[in-house]
Each structure stands twice: as C-alpha cells, then as structure tokens.
Amino acid sequence: MTHFVSAEEERRVRANDREYNEKFQYASNCIMTSKYNIVTFLPVNLFEQFQEVANTYFLFLLILQLIPQISSLSWFTTIVPLALVLSITAVKDATDDYFRHKSDNQVNNRQSQVLIRGSLQNEKWMNVRVGDIIKLENNQFVAADLLLLSSSEPHGLCYIETAELDGETNMKVRQSVSVTSELGDQNNLASFDGEVVCEPPNNKLDRFCGTLYWRDKKYNLTNQNMLLRGCVLRNTEACYGLVIFAGPDTKLMQNSGRTKFKRTSIDRLMNTLVLWIFGFLVCMGVILAVGNAVWEREVGSLFQSYLPWDPPVDNFLFSAFLSFWSYVIILNTVVPISLYVSVEVIRLGHSYFINWDQQMFCSQCNTAAEARTTTLNEELGQVEYIFSDKTGTLTQNIMSFNKCSINGQTYGDPQLSICLQRLDFTPFNPLADQDFCFYDDTLLESVKVGDSHTHEFFRLLSLCHTVMSEEKSEGELVYKAQSPDEGALVTAARNFGFVFRSRTPGTITTTEMGRPVTYILLAILDFNNIRKRMSVIVRNPEGRIRLYCKGADTVLLERLHPCNQELMNITSDHLNEYAADGLRTLALAYRDVSEDEWETWSESHRCADKATNCRDDRLAAAYEEIEQDMMLLGATAIEDKLQEGVPETIAVLSLANIKIWVLTGDKQETAVNIGYSCKMLTDDMTEVFIISGHTVQSVRQELRSAAAAGGGKQLQCPPPPPPPPSNNLMDNISGEFALVINGHSLAHALEADMETEFVSTACACKAVICCRVTPLQKAQVVELIKKHKKAVTLAIGDGANDVSMIKSAHIGVGISGQEGIQAVLASDYSFAQFRFLQRLLLVHGRWSYLRMCRFLCYFFYKNFAFTMVHFWFGFFCGFSAQTVYDQYFITLYNIVYTSLPVLAMGIFDQDVPDKRSLEYPKLYEPGQLNLLFNKREFFICIAQGIYTSVVLFFVPFAVLSDATQSTGVPLADYQTFAVTTATALVIVVSVQIALDTGFWTVINHVFVWGSLGSYFTIMFALHSQTLFRIFPNQFHFVGSAQSTLLQPVVWLTIALATAICIVPVLAFRFLKVDLKPQLSDTVRYTQLVRQKKRKPIEGRLGARGGSRRSGYAFAHQEGFGELITSGKNMRLSSLALATFASRHSSSWIDTLRRKKHTHTHTPPTGAETDVKKT
C-alpha cells in the first residue's frame, strides 16, 4: 500500500464544487494495495529476487561459464536451475499480487450514489471525489470519510458498525450538525454550498477537528459528525454525507500497513553464509592459482616442447589467472543452486502439511487452516512475541447469562442441579428466546412458585437497561443492545418470564409472567466509567416509585443499607466464586422512593441537568444523593465467551517461553476482564501496572514508578538464578507483573525519547495489554519490539483493524471470523480459531525449523565433502583445474544421487511426535534461541565436510598408489581412483543421512537406498560399451566401473574410508546423548521406557482463587440514557443487535503458568527436570 503523502496544513472542502476542490489536487477515492503492474512486474520482481545474494552469485557464475577458456563445466548446468528458481518465485509473487489487484478492483468498482447537478447518479467508488455529496442506504459500506449532513432518522441521527476500524461490533451513534440535519431533500442538498475547513489527513480514528462555514455562520465539527470509510450503516434507512477525505487519505487507509517483502532469519543468515563461502571459494582459488603459477614456472616449463600452453596463454601468470577462474567454477558446488530449489520444495511440503492438518480444521465453520505463503514456515518455530487482537480473536464477542445469586442462593452450577439437560422454556414462556441456554432448573422452579426475591431480581433486569426492542411479528422480539452484556441480561429476564417488550421516552412495557405491565419511566441515571453503575427510577401501575440499580460490586455494595450486611457477605462469597471462574460479575439492588423524596430529588436533578457550568459534576452529585441505602437483590455472572481453548493455548504458549501481548481497540475494563478470563492476568501476580497518563511527563512518571515497584518487589522475592549481566533494573524483576496501557498514553510511550523505557518495562512483565489503540499503533508496537528485542514476532487478528499489525510482524496470522476477510487476505497463515495457534507453532513451526536446520547442516556437509576433494586433487594434478570425477557424476551428484534423501528428511523428519511437542512446550525454546542452525553449527558442518573430503581423497590415494589387480596390473590410474572416490563419497553421505534421519517413513527408505542403487545403475550404464560406441567423444570412462568394483582392495578401501568418516560421528553422538542430553533426547527416552503414555494437558485441571471484578457494560457508551429519555431515537432502528450462543468455554489450571526462562542453555540435569515439571 502506497500512502498519499500530504504536505497540507489544513483541508478546505466546498460542497458540490468539484472545480474548486480539484485545484488542491486531493487524492481520488481509488485505492491500490498491490505491489506490481504489468509494466513494473518483471524489473521490480527480478530486482527483489536478486537481493538474494545466492541468485546474484549464480548469475555471476553463469557469466563465467560462458567463457570457454576457463569453463570446464557446461553453462546449462547453472542457467536451467537458476531460471527455474526465478520463474517459480515470480509465478508465486504474481499470483499473490493478482489477488491483491482483484481485491482492489472489487472495492474500487463498488457502486455509490453521488449527487451530481441535483440528481443522484451511480458512480464507482474510484470516481468519487472530495466535495461530493453521496447517499448511503442501510447496510452499505461507507465509501470515504464523510461529514454526516442529514439522515432519515430523527434529529440527524444514524447508527454505524465500526468493526473494520476498531474491532468493536457494538453499534455507535453519529449525529449531523443541527443546521444541516434539516436538508433531507436532495434538492436542498444540491444547493448546499457550505465550506469545511479541517485538519489534514491523519490516522487518529477517535478524533476529528473542523469547522463548517455556511450562510455567514460557523459550526464546530467533531468525530461524532463523521462517518469513516470501512464503517457500515446499520438500522438507518438512508443518510447523506459530504466527502472530506478520499482513498489513501481516509483514516482506514492511513492505518493500513505497507505490503512488505518478508524474509526469515534463516534466509538472512544464508545470505551471510553465501558471502562467507564465496570468500572461502576465492581464497581456495587464489591458493590453487598461486600453486599453478609456481608449478608452471618450476615444472610445467620442462614440458613445453611436447605439452605447450593453449592459446592465448603465453606465460605462467596468465595461466594462473585463468586457473583461478576455472577453480572458482569447479568449486562452486559448495553452494549449488539445487540448495535453493530444495529449500523451496521443503517449504512447499510444510505448507501442504499445514493445509492438510485435520486437527486445525474447524468443522463448525467448515474452514481449514491455510498457509498463504510458503516462505516463512521455519520462522514459525522461532516466535518469541505474539501480538493478539481481542474481539473475535480471543473472544467470540458473545455474552451468555451463566450464573446468578438471588437473596443468598446461588444458581447456575450444573453440578448442583438435578437436571443436567438444557432447560426448555417454551412450555412455561411462549416469548422465550430459543437460543438462550441455562441448565439449573431450581431457578426456573423458584420463578414458577412466585418467590418474591426472584421476581424482583428479574424485574430489575427487564427494566434497568438501555436496550431497544423491535417486534417483527407477534412474539418475535429482537433486542438491540449497545453492549452485549446488556443484551445477555435482558434476554435472561425474558426467558424467566419478565419480557421487555417496548419503550417510549416515558414508559417501559413488559410482560411479567404472561401479564402485560407498563411502567412510567421517571429517570435514567446513566452509566459512565467513574460511576460504574446505572439506575432507573420507575413508577409501577400501583403508583409506587422504585429505584433499580445495577453496577460494579465494588461501588454498589458500599451504597447498601446496613441491614444488608449478612446478605452482602454471602453474596460477596458468590461474587468471588464467579470471578474465580473468569465471569463478568454485577451486583443488583433497589430502593423505594417516597413521593416527597422524588419531588425534591427531581427538582435538584432538573437544575443539575440544565446547569451550564460543571453539569457532569452536578449530575453525578444528584445521582449519588438518591443511590443510597439500597436493598441488595443479588448478583449476576456473565460469561464473555472466549473462543474454545484460549486459556489452555495461552498457558501452553507461555510455557514455551512465548510472550503474548493483547492489542485491542476496546476499553480498558473490557480488555482487563478478558485478560483475567483467558488467564493472561491472574490474582497471583504481584501487581498490575496501569499506565493511563495524558501527558508525556505523566506517562514517563508512571513507567518509572512501575519499574521502581518491580525492582522493589524483586528485593523481597527469593533470589532467582543469576541473570545475564545487565544495566537495566527491569531486566532483573521477577516477571510476575502485568502492564496495562491506554492508547493515549501509548502515543507518548512510542515517542523516540521514551520508547526504550517503555520496551524495557513492558518486556519485563509477564503480560501486556494495550487498550484503545488505533490500527497504526498496533503496527508501531510490533515494529518497536522488532527494533529493540531482535525477536521473531507474530501478529494475529480477525478484522480490518488488524491488517497493519499483521503486515508489520514477521508472521501474520488471520482468523476467518465475524469481521470479514481483510485480515485473512493480508495474512501469511489463516485458520478459524485462536487455539489452532498452539499447534501451528509448537508442532508445525517447531518441526519446520528442525527439518530446515537439519537439511541445511547436512546439505553444506555433503557439498563440502564432495567439492573439497577437487582442492586436494589440485596439489597432485599440477593445479590444472582437472576434476577428480567425471563430469556426469558432478552433474548428477546434487540432482540425483543425494537430492531425494535430504529432501525426504527435510520434509518428513521429526524428533518427537506431535503429541509430545504439545506436552513438552519447552521443546520449542531451541528455535527461539536459534540453537539448531547458526554460525557455530555451520562451521561444525563445514569442518565435518572438510574432514570427510580429506579421508575420501587421501585414503584411496594412499591405498591405490601401491595396489595391484589380481593380474598384477597396478591400480594407480586416474579412472580407478575417480570411481573409488566417487563410490566412497556416495556411500558415506548415504550412511550419514541415515544417521541424521530421526523419523523413518517408507519414502525415506525408498529415497535413501534407491539413490544409492541409482548411483550404481547409472554409473554402470555411463561406463558401458554401448554408450561409448554411440558417443565415443563424450564417455571416456568406458569399462572403468566394472573393472574397478571387481577388485576386493577397492571395496576394502571404500569400507575403510567409510569407517574413518562415520565412527567418530557415531562416538561423539553417543557421548553427547549420554553426558549432555537435550530435552528432545530425554523425551524420546521416556517414550521408549514407559508403557503408559503421559496424559496430555487438557480439560479442567484446577480452579483459581479470584477477586471480584464487575464486567458490567464495559463496552457501554455514556449518554445513551439521556438519548432514550429525550425520545430522539424512538424509531424501530436503534443500537447494536447482540448475538448469543450457548457454547461453554474451557477452563484450565493456573499452575500451568510459569515464569519465562532466561535465554541460557539448559544444563544436563535441567532437561530431565523440565520433563518432570512440564
């Protein structure tokens, strides 16, 4: 995505005046997220591919091979595989970009109704311009950032869903400026010529500042007047808007991350190693060229009479120069291009394994896991930080009424219920919601027998809310709740016989136990984040006035009448139990209000409401006055439905030393509550730091206070293992802390002078939650960790608001959920549920990393063993660049003889089965620490390869120098030596791959032994009389294989060379497993010695003690109560329609959470200790 870079300081937009607006050259509404077009594809894609050092290296070799004076190998041996690699990559990149073009075209060609010259005309989105007035209809996407002018709803109201922007599915209200709300007719709008002066394009979703100038007056504009691109119009017949920002200037696109070319750390390491190998190659070439110069001067000159130099060589220096380049070509097989072909094939195989994994298939939504890229698989085995969205990723955004406490009696625990079947409410209540799920029949019996406390409990739930009701047909009710919590509570009351039917600004109509009842609504005492409660004051049909209140138990219990003490203690215990289960708790109370008290309070409330100064404070004081001496009714417990297996997944990933950060657009309270539900936050944590400052100074002070508190607490803890040396206080804290930071504070924390302090504090905490963050801030947090921690990051989300984060992380994972497919389209991997992340990383990721590392180690080993023989031979052939083996063996070695066995190992190998990978998460740590393939491991492989080449050259050379055939003919000829060395090489590398393979399949057996068999078959064919007769100039080794391999001394030589190469490796490995076993060795050992397998970590393993937290209406928006009582929104369309589900989420044991281990090698005894503890 290429952003439109704007230098404007302010934006001026005049309605219905394209000519005026075009002189500012504002961006059009066409968007482009693709990387290439037809013209730029070839040059740009080739430029990207030749950034791979290896591709440039092979292009250079190809040029050298085209020079006949120095080339001893055919040019096609390089150009064919190079062209193949470039073509495959280009096709893959073109396919990816084609889908981006297709997505862009789909969006750009959507239709919009634009007001042009007084009439509505259909225009494509891409043709909409700044200053146009467009008409939106219900359920349509907003085409650009619009200033709302008028609406079909009263008072210029309209309702929008912003899931694509901030991930929230509850609806929000927007309202036009009063002066334009009357321009409902398109003729009036056609003559509207107001001018808007506002801020330039920016990425702040929650802020807009501008002024409307019209008819010599000016009107302030705020975010409440704006409809942003990506929103969907809901429950509103139609509205009109003026385009302020279009295309790349819209806040949605300003928050979109750039499409990036992602490489794995192994790719970057391989680029470095190829440079090193090329340097090594040059050094070998220089040594052999110097040797050639010395030999030609001292020895070669003696043969000039019958072995003259080939033209244009006329002196020993020029001979050495040509010899250097000849050896560069001959020795280039230390990094053959087949390496890169093989890497791509292995990655493709790993991708198919992910796609085919039935355990990552979601049967509910019929969605399989999909690897949308093939280049990042091994990086899945190295992730250290996961950045997760909340809504739709960790949660289903579905609330369910789970338990309740009424007058000291708890209900909703299936174990205490006689009936464990789901209750059927239909016979009792024809208006019941069929989707409502509850199991405790004792509560239903209590309602049926007419218990007064139970009736009052559900009466409160049916009256004390801001839900709107739509009755499509008799008895078919649809509730539109601003927050899912409220919808769940009102639905619960509905099923237990207290049905909310409708409301007007002054009444609430319910059906109580089949009897219609209308209450007069006297006042709504609205919710806000400070009060954490809401109340309604109603007059029942008998004329009695009663206040009903629900809210956070921390604020409501202290406002009860003293006579409630005993009941409060019992209810508090119930609240603790509910909170321990991660439920969102809420306390309910009421009080009777006398007529005199009502009259007095009503007057004071009216004065506070009309106050011009300190209105909010005066209203709060009035509310506080009447919300006293209440009588406790009970408590509710709502389950914010986590996705299945979320707590268990987070637990296991934490044990794998992976840190999870939640980045969400939700309010702080909601995010914290989910943090407790999914066990990221626990009551065992020493402290949860809240960073909520609004200024740079306050944020810095809060961060430093957190650091100081963390350091101080650590002093009281038992001394931990010695940490690595560090000058940072936060590196030494225990880690049993959590950090919660708000979006406005994060904006300051991400500034250059504070980012280091923020990173050190946050990374020292066990859990980090960032709330109210914009999509761009999500990406900035990811970039910050990438910059400062040099760790592999993974971002996972399900909405368009997660796209920039997904693109910024090393690995992006999209969840195909409720919020569209934008996240999936931008992702590298996708699946249906968060719990599959556990298997993606700990099984597929770990295996991919292990396989790729073993593949690379073996590949470099076998090619150094193969190539370095030429180097040693150079000292015995006059440095003439003659090859040891015949050219067909050189061509086929990497293509036929050794390619398939290493491919089979790279695709199928595994050290432990998938169940053990999940059972022992610590197995994941070697990937994070990059232990299996690094510079040290590379040099070990190279050393082993060079040692093998020394043995393979000098053992046959020494033995065959004095050996003779049974007929007395000497065996010391070039062809016999070549066949013996080649045969020994193939056997040694085949035995070595057999030792390296940890998991044998039929394919491995066929490839390993089949490749060995193919070597002998092809060699006998190439050395046959038949081919020699047909191509006498091509096949010079006629009969060599047959005559050589019939000699017992040759086989003894091969056996001796094989033993000298393999026995030290075997001895070293046995000693290493015995003296310093890795965790994987210990796990394999336990598999062998135990008859009974260890039980996997699953199901309910325990429960957590908890503190009370109210989950009431945390997604609630202040001021909605006032909107209801004003009557402004009394239409069929209202606020969010909450969806409900009955699926029960899993729970887990808190003891699975462990402190992250420091990045040090596990000592010998530590492996077994980890096995026992895990």
Overview of this protein structure:
By secondary structure, the chain is of the alpha+beta class. It has 6 domains: 11-29 and 128-256, Distorted Sandwich (Calcium-transporting ATPase, cytoplasmic transduction domain A); 38-106; 269-335; 363-393 and 643-709 and 735-833, HAD superfamily/HAD-like (Rossmann fold, 3-Layer(aba) Sandwich), CATH 3.40.50; 410-639, Calcium-transporting ATPase, cytoplasmic domain N; 844-1076, no CATH class. It is 44% helix and 16% strand. The chain is built from 39 helices and 33 strands. It has a 9-stranded mixed beta sheet with strand order 14-33-32-31-15-27-30-29-28, with helices on both faces. Strands 17-16-26-25-24-23-22-21-20 form a 9-stranded antiparallel beta sheet, sandwiched between helices. A 6-stranded antiparallel beta sheet has the order 3-2-4-13-5-11. Strand 18 and strand 19 (476-480) form a beta hairpin. Helix 28 runs antiparallel to helix 33 and helix 31 (935-962) runs antiparallel to helix 32. The protein starts with 10 loop residues before the first strand and ends with a helix. The relative contact order is 0.10. It comes from Sparus aurata. The active site is at 389 (4-aspartylphosphate intermediate). Its cofactor is Mg(2+).
